[in-house]
Amino acid sequence: MAAAAVRYLRSVRAAPEREPVEMLPRPELRCVGEDERAPVGQAEFRRVLGNFATGVAVVTAPATAGAPQAPGSTDDPQAAAPAGFACQSFSSLSLDPPLVAFMVGRTSTTWPRIARAGVFCVNVLSAGQAELCRAFAVSGADKFAGVSYDAAPASGSPRLAGTLAWIDCTIHAVHTGGDHLIVVGRVEALGASDGEEAPLLFHKGRFL
């Protein structure tokens, strides 16, 4: 998946209207050997880290021609549709230049479509949008069925209605991080609602 992401981003680099993607050297990493005990069990890792409450967002990207299909698939009905997935691991990264970041699993079937588009929009969900989040957390369904959205101004990515904020980005860099990829986006446009609604939060496996 990481190799595929690099290929997509290199193809995006050739487009004159987009910011070149900076690929940094891969750091030297050491994996736990098969004869070694992992320092932290996965169940305990999830339990402890679940105490950290996070905001929730939906990362979207516009439809792209020739979008890659899932492994083993002969016909991808979503190939001509926008892409999107629910994300807890979004954060601001830099003021100068304006950068944000999110993490996505390397086995994600949505990420290759976002990588191919070379752009994305982060939609920060409000407290009343838990069901919308659940819809974007499933795999294989038409996630945009019945969802109101328009096109974000810079990327054309779906900008979902009723969110607290939106951040429109081009992909700036992608780094490996264990079983996830760290995607850095350069902010091209952004905005927030004028309302006072609270954000949607996720804590210990449930929405708050």
TrEMBL record:
Origin: domain of life: Bacteria
InterPro entries found in the cross-reference section: Flavin_Rdtase-like_dom (IPR002563), NADH-dep_flavin_reductase (IPR050268), Split_barrel_FMN-bd (IPR012349)
Domain Flavin reductase like residue range list: 49-208
GO molecular function: FMN binding; riboflavin reductase (NADPH) activity
Keywords of the record: Oxidoreductase
Family listed: Belongs to the non-flavoprotein flavin reductase family.
Protein name (Swiss-Prot/TrEMBL): NADPH-flavin oxidoreductase
Species: Streptomyces regalis
Lineage: Bacteria, Bacillati, Actinomycetota, Actinomycetes, Kitasatosporales
